[in-house]
Specification:
Helix content: 40-55%
Shape: globular
CATH class of the largest domain: Alpha Beta
Strand content: 5-15%
Strand order of the largest sheet: 3-4-2-5-6-1-7
CATH topology of the largest domain: Rossmann fold
Low-confidence stretches: none
Distance between the termini: 35 Å
Oligomer: single chain
Amino acid sequence: MDFLQNLTPRDYQNEIFKTCVEKNCLVVLPTGLGKTLIALMVSIEKMKEFPEKKVLFLAPTKPLAEQHLKYFQKNLPDLFGSLELFTGSVPSQKRKKIWDTADIIFSTPQCIANDIKKKLYNLEEVCLLIEDEAHRCVKNYDYNFVADHYKITSKDARIIGLTASPGSDPKKIKEICKNLSIEEVELRTRDSPDVKKYLQKLEFEKKIVELPREFIEIKKALQNIFDEYTDKLKLKNFLFGPVNKFSLIELQRKISFQLSKNLSHPSSYFAISLVAQAIKLSHAMELLETQTLESFYKYIKKLIDEAEKRKSKGVVRLVNREDFKFIHDKTFSLLEKGFEHPKVKEIIKIVRDEKKKKEKTKIIIFTQFRNTASLISKNINNLSGIKSKVFVGQAKKEGYGLNQKEQKKIIEDFSDGKTNVICATSIAEEGLDIPEVDSVIFYEPVSSAIRSIQRRGRTARLSKGKLIILITKDTKDEFAYYASRSREKKMEKSIHSVRQDLKKERKNP
């Protein structure tokens, strides 16, 4: 292809490119299989067709937008056009000037949406809109706002959505397609015949661990309090059907709404207190069963601190119970004796074994919680030859976080081999240009098909890779593991059904 430097597209990329040039297309391709190259090829083609017009490339975060800019800069000749990054730190009037002269603009949707609302410019001159991480086009108002404005103002509108997975719900996939006026969906998985030949073998291991007897004692005490609270909610006709964290959060939302509108029953105040404590107990059980004893203890201590500050009568009643005091004392005693969740011991063994097999191994360990990532990193740093760093998002109201500069430095050190294990939360799942790794370890399974596909896409691209998933027996881990497998299978069926619907719509407009 003209202007394309140092790159030879693969067969499946060429096929998807042809569709994207002709139709608004949703490209579903696992992490690391070259979605950005397809976007680059379409950008070149559209700018050859409309030399006076612009390309707008949107990504949900500034680091991701910057990453795409660097990829284009690296693979396009200097004379091709002016490539610019839009950020909120650039004054709006300056952005207007840059917009007038730029050929390809990389930005977050918020930045462009705010400028359009201020009427700094419109998207009339844009011949191609690319929306990365397009599964976010369901909830992300700014993504949808920019797409709607583009469809109205541009005479030569062409839209591409890029994602590793749009999820498994046909309604959501249809909504993404509707919001981006998608005419065709191009789906490839690791098993697609035209993709498979380019990929290396992915070895898979499932490691089952069992909760120690001491943990089960604590779990039973928590479960008894939880059942007591939820039984009272059922008795008062507030709670029906299966009880889990999601049904409790939904009930909390419903009662809060009724209270705010003065539509509530007199017992609603009593019920909302019970629901709040039941949600806390559910979270505590999840930490105990699937995370670390240290993070569980920190959470128990947090509840005691809340009670001391009299944050709510409900939490005071909860921590003053004898069975809650037993939970606290038993956990403290186990930590004093050096007990930890069996997954921690298992992960130390896995990392040690992988290092023995390959001296210059690179590993990513994914976990849901920051505390867990920190504890794992601290433990494996005691191993010979292991240099581990924690990789998390920006700081929240409470606790530890990394700013974008710190995140960038960790990725650089990992690429250069100064670090060989990253312990990451969900921030490492999406988009970021993390080098390929030898092994991906899930500290816990995730029930989301999107997140599962993104996590394992970090390995087995250019060389053989391994995926290891840790599962605590008879806990939420088992449900999450089977749920994600089922949702991935459903995703392919759902996309196939949406494609059929799009074809019908084209035949019968």
